[in-house]
Design goal:
- By secondary structure, the chain is α/β, with parallel strands linked by helices.
- It is 49% helix and 13% strand.
- β1, α1 and β2 form a beta-alpha-beta unit.
- α4 runs parallel beside α6.
Length: 161
């Protein structure tokens, strides 16, 4: 049975709802795939409780080790997600990155291109290139969750062969 680790930040209602939405879609479209969503792990992520740094890293590392594929949302440039990508990269396992940040779109807009050089006016998103490279080296970077689910289906069908 294929297991997916879903990584994204967990620190506001919008991302918590997005995470649940995407993971629910994965579970709906791939019912025989197990998905680990860290925010569902109350032992380490219930913010009304306490879990120290060693408990958190050990728990998430065990889940990463036990997973076959990492799906990582990189819109927030969260350091925890970057670490999860790095760990999974070192495990030599497939990574699917989701990057939906609309600020990435600047094609042909000369004002946006010129603003890059004006302090405080850069309107184009930056994403850590080492993180992008790790994703591309081990898998693919996509701009929507539907494409990520399509890639998961392809990986699942290869596993079933």
């Amino acid at each position: 049975k294929m297991k997916v680790y879903f990584a994204n930040d967990l620190f506001n209602d919008a991302t918590l709802m997005y995470n649940e939405h995407v993971v629910s879609k994965i579970e709906e479209e791939l019912p025989d795939v197990e998905v680990y969503l860290p925010q569902r792990n109350d032992a380490i992520n219930d913010k009304t409780q306490y879990a120290d740094s060693l408990t958190i890293v050990k728990a998430d590392y065990e889940e990463l080790e036990d997973s076959d594929v990492l799906v990582a949302v990189i819109d927030s440039d969260d350091s925890g997600v970057a670490l999860e990508i790095g760990m999974f990269y070192m495990m030599n396992k497939p990574i699917i990155g989701i990057y939906t940040d609309t600020r990435r779109i600047a094609y042909g807009n000369e004002q946006k291109k010129e603003a890059i050089d004006i302090l405080g006016e850069n309107q184009i998103a930056y994403t850590n290139l080492m993180v992008i490279g790790a994703i591309k080296e081990r898998g693919e970077l996509v701009d929507n969750h539907e494409e990520a689910i399509r890639l998961l289906k392809n990986l699942k069908s290869k596993e079933d062969l």
